[in-house]
Amino acid sequence: MGEMETQEKAEKELERMTVKELKAIAAEETDLVGIHAMKKAELLAAIKMAKGIPEKKTPKKEVEKVEITVKELKTTIDELKKKKEEYRKARDKRMVEVLRRRMNRAKKRTRKISQA
Q: What residues have CB less than 8 Å from 106, skipping those under 6 apart?
């Protein structure tokens, strides 16, 4: 258990270091190549791998992807067109622009779905 605590402590210390400090550690303590071109995340991963520190992956929130068909998207586009015309008649430019963007995104989604 003591070894795990020291690894966690070393990992936390590495996370807090600047890029210059990480590059110095990588140059002195490891035989990594190309450290000067690496970004902080790449340096951290390389140093942890070289030292044998397991990398923790933070769990991302799982989002349910809703399967939608092209037909459903096209019906929503038609509904958006009708709403857009209503707002255009009411001279609400902001909502017309919002609906135009929503329609544009929906059209792009139909192209992605049909390609897949």
A: 73, 76, 77, 80
As a three-state string, the secondary structure of 47-100 is HHHHHCCCCCCCCCCCCCCCCCCHHHHHHHHHHHHHHHHHHHHCCCHHHHHHHH
pLDDT 10s digits, 39-78: 888 888 888 888 887 766 666 666 666 678 889 999 999 9
Same domain, 42 and 79: no
How many structural domains comprise the chain? 2
| 95 phi/psi in degrees, rounded to 5 | -70, -30
CA distance 88 to 33: 60
Q: Kindly report the pTM of this predicted structure.
A: 0.44
Return the minimum-mean-pLDDT range out of 17-21, 72-76, 84-88, 110-114. 110-114
Nearest CA among 83, 82, 75 for reference residue 107: 75
**Segments forming the whole domain that contains residue 89:** 70-115
